[in-house]
Amino acid sequence: MFQLFINFSRVGVLGLWAIYLLGFVIAYPAPWNAIVFWGGIVLFAAHLMEYLALRSKITSAGGDGSGGLIGTLVFGYGYWLPLLRK
User: Fold this and answer.
1) What pTM was computed for the model?
2) What is the DSSP letter of 44?
3) Chunked in runs of 10, what are the mean pLDDT values of the chain (86 residues)?
4) Which of 14, 54, 71, 74 can bridge 79 by disulfide, Cβ–Cβ 3.0-4.6 Å?
5) What gap in Å lies between CA 75 and CA 38, rounded to an integer?
6) Among candidates 27, 83, 75, which has minimal Cα distance to 57?
7) DSSP letter (8 states) at residue 25
8) Cβ contacts of residue 70 below 8 Å, gap of 6+?
């Protein structure tokens, strides 16, 4: 059940990143363009704060330095939570 939750979370976050990146290629209607842009910035900032807060735990649990950073920036807790549960 836990792994199912993590997998759904990863798919959801990848979907959000895809919507954000697609906003640089196509123009969303007026209010959605700003919402998607700032939502992506907030998502990035939240994942960066997650990494900075848990950096030592991620590296001690087996996540290497740059891979841990990239994994956390892309997936958030979907990357580091399974590492910490091992």
Assistant:
1) 0.86
2) H
3) 93 96 94 95 96 89 78 92 86
4) 71
5) 18
6) 83
7) T
8) none
